[in-house]
Specification:
44% of the residues lie in helices and 0% in strands. The protein is built from 3 helices and no strands.
């Protein structure tokens, strides 16, 4: 085994406390999402059992919570926008002629 592979496996093992709980929770969430269809490898439930599972799902609290944050995307104006005043390069509000 070369040094690069050894370093990769070492980093993987050292980082296990970080990624293992995350993967475990993803697996649990996936199993819960698939229970109405019989799970991952299980057979499809009968209509009566599917109704019982649907009733259980209706009684549970939602796992994902959406909190709208209205203040995001709104820009505050610190100072009122000033009216444009013509500068010396424009020459004022006089009529321009060709030629």
């Amino acid at each position: 085994m070369d040094n690069v592979a050894l370093i990769k496996y070492t980093v993987l093992l050292v980082a296990t406390p970080i990624w293992l709980p995350f993967m475990r929770e993803l697996w649990r969430e996936f199993r819960l999402a698939m229970r109405e269809d019989g799970g991952i490898w299980g057979k499809q439930p009968m209509p009566r059992e599917r109704q019982r599972i649907s009733d259980q799902l209706a009684q549970e609290r939602p796992r994902q919570v959406h909190i709208p944050k209205g203040h995001l995307g709104i820009r505050r104006r610190i100072a009122p926008k000033k009216a444009h005043t013509p500068g010396p390069q424009i020459g004022g509000p006089r009529r321009r002629t060709f030629g």
